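Can anyone check this?
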Amino acid sequence: MAKRKPPKPKPIVIAEPTPEQQAQGAFHRVGMAYRRIPVIDTMAQCKKLTPRQFNGLARYRDVAIAEERSLIEDSVGKMMRGALGGGDVGLAPNMIRTAIEMQRLEAALGNLRDIARAVAVDDVTISQWAMQKWGTVEGQSVKGKTVTVFPAPKPGTQEQALAEVRAAGDMLATVIGG
């Protein structure tokens, strides 16, 4: 009997982010997937944040993401909690610790909590935040004519938002001991 050649596998199609997704942020390829680059990483690379401010905002991002994870434990977590005498009652210690740290960080931020969360966790850019909070300029008058341009933050608001993010980064770095 003659041996049959195995069929060639179909090539794997890697889907790139949609144009709408690409308009909302930068992406890089990780293996076969695309991952969105966090806004704070881009700001740090462009030297808009000091390493200290970046570390504070990055820790805040990590804690916020950990807090948003599912409260459903895996079997290993349940087994370890049972082995330590914790039983099945209540939250896991890591969940309690994360919630406490998140409250501590947000208490330190005070009125900067909204912008810190938007930029560090939700990946809203400084200009997007400025436009959401203070509005946009959509038309400009040029020699008596109104020329429509893309929406832009009102003058001075982007700088104010950047100063607020930097202040939030400094506050967070102080709280975490950086």
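Reply from J.R.: I decoded it. The radius of gyration is 23 Å.
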